[in-house]
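STRUCTURE REQUEST FORM
Protein name: Tripartite tricarboxylate transporter permease
Source organism: Saccharopolyspora ipomoeae
Requested output: structure tokens
Priority: standard
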Amino acid sequence: MTETFGQLLAGFADALTPLNLLLCLIGVVLGTAVGVLPGLGSSMAVAMLVPLTFKLEPTGAFIMLAGVYFGGQFGGSTTAILLNTPGQSSSMATAFEGFLMARKGRAPQALATAAIGSFVGGTIACVAVVFCAPYLVDFALRFGPAEYFALAVFAFVATAAVVADSAVRGLTALGLGLALGVVGIDQQTGVARYTLGSDALLDGISVVVVTVGMLAIGEVLHVAARGRDSQRLQDISTGKPWLGRSDVRRSLLPWLRGTGIGLPFGAIPAGGSEIPTFLSLGLERRLAARRGRSEFGAGAIEGVAAPEAANNSTTAVSLVPLLGLGLPTSATTAVMLGAFQQYGMQPGPLLFSDEGELVWALLASLFIGNVLLLALNLPFAPVWARLLKIPQHYLYASIAVFATLGAYAAKLAISDVILVYAVGLLSFLLRRNGVPLAPVLIGVILGPLAERELRRAMALGQGDPTVLISSPIAAALYAVLAAAVVVTLLLRRRAKTA
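Status: completed
Returned output:
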């Protein structure tokens, strides 16, 4: 412990040099700006910056790339709250209650809650990365095909049950998401599935297309269809600029619970930040219902605090398998792995000994980046809230433009733009009929993972289905899921008889 603390202090000494501090600031600012734009995620920002960093010293380059990573994860919450248009898929869960808070005139409070939640989750996760990295790596190594499949099933059922008042509608939405997720060439057999004879669908429908189409274009169509009947954003009061005591008191435990849920997910390649953010949203919703004073569905601050803390804690911990195992757990960390290799470094167990100075400076910069993000975004929450004063037709026209550019930039394909608007139309129809969007999104994200790991598990077990529950982790996940379903059914029955 003492040795680790000393190495961290040495890392702070390197990270706090004027040049590295400036690079960290540039990184978080660029990341936040890119994160705000629908479809342009932190992975794209890091990929575009990698060639520009080759003239920098490796330590400074990776400090800036880490700043972009953190800033991008945070920036997605701004438009999620203000416009119901998440900049990144990891901010989807925040949009549900955050946008409702904005419509109630509490946009500054929602933005401040997201900023502090990101800081709390990111800082606690950085401490865990520094002092608990060996244990987190060991935890990641325990996950095999059966565990990944159990985790995906857990996320499917939890999300479908959490965000839908009707189980039928929740399962219908989940089925649609799974159907979209299996479009394309089967990776094991090479057979094209559900492509309708279109070459554009051979690569499948990307998460970027579905996220942007569902949440950005779908919101634009929804507002346009309502026309004069929709609440004008510029008529919404921006309210008081800071969090009150009641807001802090209600957010404190959700910040901590969201962080706790997000920590283990960063260490395993199981879908990035989306699972923990939705799980934390579901947990807070159930706890609020149990207390009997739930504001979920009307702008609950807990529904912003917990997902944002979970999001950033997952982001920080995702560097553990990257640095310790050379195993990327997200698209952004995959790009960073390529950057390490470009510098002639191979992340893994020897990286801490061979490139210790760089690694500890990078870890120290995570703390600095969190502080910079809080300092940059918390005071500007009321300023961001004033975006709602922009005339609505200009605002949503801009969303459509940026969403279209974001979809095109991912693969530079016109077919993706067409798909974005097709998915947006589907989203509009689902919303008009009261079908929730979250299960669709989680089905698209986790469907391919669940299918792949199920087939791998069955192959390893030679067709024996008991292999799916043979490990303690998988069995524990199924047991928790079964208990949650039983409790939910009992509570619903009690509510009907009351």
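Reviewer notes: The first strand starts at residue 184 and ends at 185. Residues 234-238 have pLDDT under 50 and may be disordered.
Form closed.
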